Amino acid sequence: MNVIETNLKGVVIIEPKVFGDSRGWFMESWSKQKFEAAGLNFDFVQDNQSYSAHKGTLRGLHYQLNPMSQAKLVRCTRGKLLDFAVDIRQNSPQFAKWTAVELSAENKRQLIIPRGFAHGFLTLTDDVEIQYKADNYYAPQCDGNIKWDDAQIGIKLPFAPTILSDKDAKAPSLSERIERGELNFFFD
């Protein structure tokens, strides 16, 4: 397994070792032992999967508040997407900074997104499946979102999204969430 740092400390790309032959291929998508040996200590408790039928679908920016915040290990198992993470820890030196990584069924890359980061993705093809592990259970009362095109964050996408949920289309800005006291993440 190869661990690649991104421009955001804590957000890392995982390139698993893939073994192939005439039958196809095999890889370990998760090994607690190997991740811990690489200094990546997570106790994942929930697996999630979503499907997006059309290119241009945007989901995010989503997060869960404390005490139910989540770290995620994200991978794309069908199609191709641009996955992005934003540091929303208010006193972090990286606050409101973002990173994006192309994940696809072909490249088999995975992305670790720590607690205190918002997460989103844009589908780059039709028929996209994303799967991710979370280190905390989903809690609707702690669910939150921020508008993906918030000028304070400045995420650059390869093209404008064409499909968003009503919830994501109407999401407040990062500064609105802070002004209303709706973010409780702090850098430690």
Tell me the layout of helices and strands:
Elements (H helix, E strand, L loop, with lengths): L1 E4 L6 E4 L2 E4 L2 E4 L4 H6 L8 E7 L5 E7 L7 E7 L1 E8 L10 E7 L5 E4 L3 E7 L4 E7 L8 E3 L20 H4 L4 H6 L9
Antiparallel strand pairs: 1-2, 2-10, 3-4, 5-12, 6-11, 6-13, 7-10, 7-12, 8-9, 8-11
Structural notes for this entry:
The protein is mainly β. It is built from three helices and 13 strands, in the order ββββαβββββββββαα. The chain has a six-stranded antiparallel sheet with strand order 1-2-10-7-12-5, with no helix packed on it. A five-stranded antiparallel sheet has the order 9-8-11-6-13, with no helix packed on it. A two-stranded antiparallel ribbon has the order 3-4. β1 and β2 form a beta hairpin. It is globular, with a radius of gyration of 16 Å. The two termini are 28 Å apart. The mean pLDDT is 95.
Features:
3 helices; six-stranded antiparallel beta sheet; mainly beta
Rounded to the nearest angstrom, the radius of gyration is 16 Å
Mean pLDDT: 95
The H/E string reads: EEEEHEEEEEEEEEHH
Strand order of the largest sheet: 1-2-10-7-12-5
Per DSSP E runs of 2 or more residues, the count of β-strands stands at: 13
Enumerate the spans where pLDDT stays under 50 for 5 or more consecutive residues. none
- End-to-end distance: 28 Å
What structural class do you assign from the helix and strand content?
mainly beta
- How much helicity do the residues have? under 10%
Assembly type of the chains comes to single chain
Helical segment tally? 3
Major β-sheet annotation: 6 strands, antiparallel
How much of the sequence is in beta strands? 35-45%
Shape: globular
